[in-house]
Design brief:
Layout lengths: L1 H27 L3 H14 L4 H13 L3 H14 L3 H17 L7
Length: 106
């Protein structure tokens, strides 16, 4: 029984990693729409994957979908343990708010 669950978990994790890797490749090629689709597919398998949330947010930001990027970055700031990556997620969150003209200084 445990072997079955272990194999299933590995398949799921492998699929998540594949989606993230493909998303990264499309992002490098500046195909942000396909990158976002792959990151979203990874998140459908693991909705709280911190790297997936942050990468999905960046792709959405590049597509100027600031509202959804804000949601993704907000979750990423909660889930990311590494302070450098968490700081980047907060930075990107601020950029989204700026582009939505929220919290602009006069």
């Amino acid at each position: 029984m445990f072997l079955f669950f272990g194999l299933f978990g590995n398949k799921k994790e492998n699929a998540i990693l594949k989606y993230l890797k493909n998303g990264n490749q499309f992002y490098k090629e500046k195909d942000y729409k396909l990158a976002a689709q792959h990151y979203k597919s990874a998140l459908e398998l693991d909705s709280v994957n911190a790297i997936g949330l942050n990468n999905y947010g960046v792709a959405l930001y590049k597509l100027k979908d600031y509202k959804n990027a804000i949601g993704s970055f907000t979750l990423a700031t909660i889930r990311l343990n590494d302070l450098t990556h968490r700081g980047r997620a907060f930075h990107n969150l601020g950029k989204c708010y700026y582009h939505q003209k929220i919290f602009r200084m006069r």
